[in-house]
Structure formats: C-alpha cells, structure tokens
Automatic annotation (TrEMBL):
Pfam families documented for this protein: DUF4240
Superkingdom of origin organism: Bacteria
Name of the molecule in the record: DUF4240 domain-containing protein
InterPro entries in UniProt: DUF4240
Segments forming domain DUF4240: 3-83
Organism: Actinomadura chokoriensis
C-alpha cells in the first residue's frame, strides 16, 4: 500500500505539513496515511491537497497536537509474529524472500517541484498552502 503512495506530489505535501520530510520521514508519513483509513489514503494519493481537510492536519497547522507519521507500523507484523511464535528468524527469512520478489519503485513517481518555492506550492497545493504558508 505504501508503495502506491510513493509519489512526489504527496511527498511535497508531507514536507509542507511536517515542516520538512526526508526519506525516512516520508516512509513513516505514508504508513500513517494507511492508519487514517482507505478513504483518506486513496484521496491523498490521488490529490495530496485533500489532506487539508483531515482533522489531524488542521490541528498540525495550528501547532496543536497531532502527527501523521507512524514508524511503528513498519514493525507491527514482526512484533506480532514474535508474540505468537516466540521467534522472528523464520519471519525475517520469509519477508526477505517475499520482498525480494516484489517489484518496488526505485524512486517516487509523479511530477515534483521545489517545495521551497512558495508560489509554486500555492499553485499546486492551494488548500495546504493556505494552512501552512
């Protein structure tokens, strides 16, 4: 799921929302989007500016509580496996095999822009720019 969100426009939206966003931060941001549910996730991938309507994003723009990124989601399957099976070696081996056979994007897709260019960001993400710029 998170690979489908590996898109430059969404990364620029994450950068704006979080006040900066590197590789690891964008990976965590995409995981957090999964936790916000199918509708929010799907809408954000298609139209990153739609995130301006998400309550957490609105709170973040007001510098209130809230955060979208969720690094812990990356570890949830392994931790659950450990609780049930008492070990993770067989899980790690199975995951390496599965991920190794997957076709995953090497770089984000979609047209990007210099997110530091406020005018361009306002043009491409008008609702988010209104909240954060």
């Amino acid at each position: 799921m998170t690979d489908s969100a590996y898109r430059r426009p969404l990364w620029n939206a994450a950068y704006l929302i979080e006040g900066g966003c590197g590789d690891d931060g964008f990976m965590d941001f995409r995981s957090g989007l999964v936790l916000l549910g199918r509708e929010v996730f799907t809408r954000a991938v298609a139209d990153p500016d739609s995130l301006a309507a998400v309550p957490t994003v609105i709170r973040m723009s007001r510098e209130e509580s809230g955060w979208i990124g969720c690094e812990a989601l990356h570890y949830a399957p392994r931790n659950a496996y450990r609780q049930v099976m008492g070990e993770t070696t067989s899980f790690d081996t199975a995951m390496e095999t599965a991920v190794g056979s997957m076709r995953r994007p090497g770089a984000p897709t979609g047209a990007g822009w210099d997110v530091e260019d406020d005018d361009e960001t306002r043009r491409r993400l008008p609702r988010l720019a209104e909240l954060f710029l």
